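Dear colleagues,

For the upcoming journal club I promised to circulate an example of a predicted protein-ligand complex. I picked one with calcium ion because it came up in last month's discussion. The inputs are reproduced below in full, followed by the predicted structure.
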Amino acid sequence: MNKILIAEDEAAIANLIKTALDGPDYQCAWAADGITASDMLERDSYDLVLLDIMLPGADGYEVLEYCQALEVPVIFLTAKGTVEDRVRGLRLGAEDYITKPFELMELLARVETVLRRCGKTGRVLSLPPDIEIDTAARTVRRNGGPVALTAKEYDLLLLFFQNKNVALYRDSIYRKVWGEDFMGESRTVDLHIQRLRKKLGLENRLVAVYKIGYRLEV
Ligand code: CA
């Protein structure tokens, strides 16, 4: 199940997308302006944002920056279909770009592709040669045997699996796993990392990045 945020000020379009996507695979939430979208992104975690460019409050380009800080992939969804807009959106880091009006089948295909490319789908994620996460069952196996993790340890491991070879900032890790603003609680992150390393034999793979945080090396 992937959580998708639709940031779109036209209710009819948002409803159409929501109706098409909601089901066993996706759960959609809707924000009608850029400020609400940013607030929702801060409060909750999403796997993907379908982002209109012309939004009241804060426009799509501003919300995109926010999504990037939170490492949430974005598909731009917009009536602005000129080459310049397309290039600007992609250059700024959007994963894809859909011009309105669009076919729902095309939207579905692009959503699927982006989620797959960003490692957000699939029931079993693996870290060869020994570790597997079943994201539906929320279980972890090492060399085929179950490993007992606390809820926070699991969330932390999943975050690194979804961001392999990426240096994650301590405050970003804290916000995503603990769902709160970083209040200098770096010990909390460090202690959980130490336990994860020990439980999963990740001492040489979950490495500290000086002055930044941690990176899972693959
Ligand atoms: Ca709009």
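Two points we might discuss: Residues 118 and 160 are 12 Å apart (CA to CA). The domain at 2-117 is CATH 3.40.50.2300 (Rossmann fold).

See you all on Thursday,
B. R.
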